[in-house]
Amino acid sequence: MIVPMRKLSLLVFYKDYQDFLEELRDRGVVHIHENKKRSAEDEELKQKLAVIKRIVEITKQLSKRVPKKEMSFTDMLERWSLAIEPKDKLAFYRQIFYPEEQLPEESEVTELDVLAFLEGQFKRMEQLDQQIASLEKDGTIYVPWGDVPTERINGLQDAGWDLRFFTVPDRKYLPEWEDKYNAFIVHQDKGQKYFITVLPKDGQEYPEADSVQFPQMSAAEIREQVEKLRSEKVDITDSLKKTAVVSIEYLKDLRRQINEDVDVLKVKDAAQVLLEDKVIALEGWVPENIAEATDEWLSGKDIAYELTEPEKQDNPPIQLKNNKFARLFEFIGELYSLPNYREIDLTPFFAPFFVLFFGFCLGDAGYGLLILLGITIYKFKAKPSIKPILSLAQWLGLSTVIMGIVSGTFFGIQLLDVQVPWVVKIKSLMLDSQQLFNLALMIGVAQIIFGMFLKVANQWKQNGLAGALSTIGWLVLIVGGGVCYGLSLKGYDVTIPLYTVVIIAGLLIFIFNNIRRNVFINIGAGLWDSYNMVTGLLGDTLSYIRLFALGISSAVLGLVFNDLAMNMSPDIPGVKQLVMLIILLFGHSVNIFMAGLGSFVHPMRLTFVEFYKNAGFEGGGKKYQPFKKRTN
């Protein structure tokens, strides 16, 4: 559900504003209504956000260089980060990062200097890579010729001889060049001939071949320079590896500090100055459950304030409050959009379907059991911050086990073909391919109709009963028509009930879809709505076939790997079992990864497209983020 909000309007005397702002941030409950236009024009804010972007980029690069063996050092740093004040952290960082001979004075090192230094290190590494690549490219010119004796060549030139280097395709090389131009073949490779000519400096002709121009540096000098640059790169890399953990922790602190500055600047931009700069006005939002406590706190301050209900044109922030199960799926909903303040939070309603869809798509009891056991064991050692994700994974694993039993698949083995006694007992729970196909469509119809009921609730909540009449008409037609069809199959006469359903649905869809409009406009709108509804419902229902298709493809691929393991293993004791194990481990690992990815993505697609559309989801809500002190 969406937590109700209260609008907080504040008037603060300018001399008390800074102190009050600090108290407001310490309390950390008020979501300040931003002035996006002023914030977009705030140059200082832009600079702060640009620095945050730089920190994020450097942190990513440093994270790739954290040695695994230094994890214990991370634990030390966590204790360090709690025990040392920010100014001491800078001194500590200075001692660790800078080489002794380059150690600057403490007063000369600032937070942004550290960031700039790290950026300079990575930029220097890029420059080194470019210089090494350029030198190596020059060095390749010497490969066919070896080390060219520059001193001897210069001596020949001083003596009046012109020594030149050429390359030409084999088919174009003419043997008469050896007599005519005093040509000597030095090297042959890949259809090319490399040769030199030694002729007097009298301006005579040269062979029709490509002349080779050597770099200014010799081959030995290039190798020496490349080695020097590589050595410098190794030194920088080692330095970054040694200090990566410290640097990341330091940058996290720096980012937190700048984020706090950003929050203050956004509040500054949101404030309005009144009465000749003497009074500052702020607006924000407070959750209803803490509005009373906030009221008591503000009543003791020398400020003017008002806590009111949101008006129709207001757009309060969104704070979700769901039960323990539905809370696990909130982040999935946020991947698409938060609901707006005046509609229903669909998280608790799509959550059970999502779990079912995942199990249907993966559809292998063995895979589900593996996921469930692995996640359960890992959860004991996991950090508290990721335990909700692991709990979600446990639900998905359990669903996969259940749907794997229903589809009769265990690590690619078709249980319907197995004659083991305990398997035979549960075969009554298993469905064949046609039944699974029908089940997928039935689940799709159920979710679509459920979504339409939620749409009625949404429309009723936002616009009253009159706004939901058209959707109610469609539900009467679909549900009522379905019931009549079912009764007719049982032999009952449904003529009168069917006519009643059609008449009621027709009136609601074509006449009363908007009681404030002209009836002829309503009829036209009803016809257009009918076209969209009929084509949309058909396409939406068929989309759920993907549940069946993904489940079948996962089972078939598992079966294929099982067959490969059995048929490709040599009939050599020991080797046969080893090869089978390798094929099974590799094959099923690939299948779990690919099928698991599809089993997560496609249920999201069904949720965000088919279910959200039929539930009338609008979205566009902004998350409740109170003005408070930041933490890492």
Give the topology, please.
Blueprint (H helix, E strand, L loop, with lengths): L4 E9 L3 H11 L3 E2 L3 H6 L1 H21 L7 H13 L2 H12 L13 H30 L9 H9 L2 E9 L7 H4 L2 E7 L2 E9 L9 E2 L7 H52 L1 E3 L4 E9 L3 H9 L4 E5 L15 H4 L2 H7 L10 H16 L2 H15 L7 H21 L1 E2 L2 E2 L6 H5 L7 H31 L5 H21 L5 H17 L7 H25 L1 H23 L7 H40 L18
Antiparallel strand pairs: 1-8, 1-9, 2-8, 3-5, 3-6, 4-5, 7-8, 10-11
Radius of gyration: 37 Å
Described by the principal axes of the CA atoms, the overall outline is extended
- Strand fraction equals 5-15%
Percent range of helical residues:
55-70%
Helix-strand category: alpha+beta
Low-confidence stretches: 70-74, 76-87
Number of domains: 3
> Would you count the extended β strands for me?
11
Major beta sheet summary? 5 strands, antiparallel
Q: What is the arithmetic mean of pLDDT? A: 83
Tell me the distance between the termini: 28 Å
Tally the helices. Answer: 22
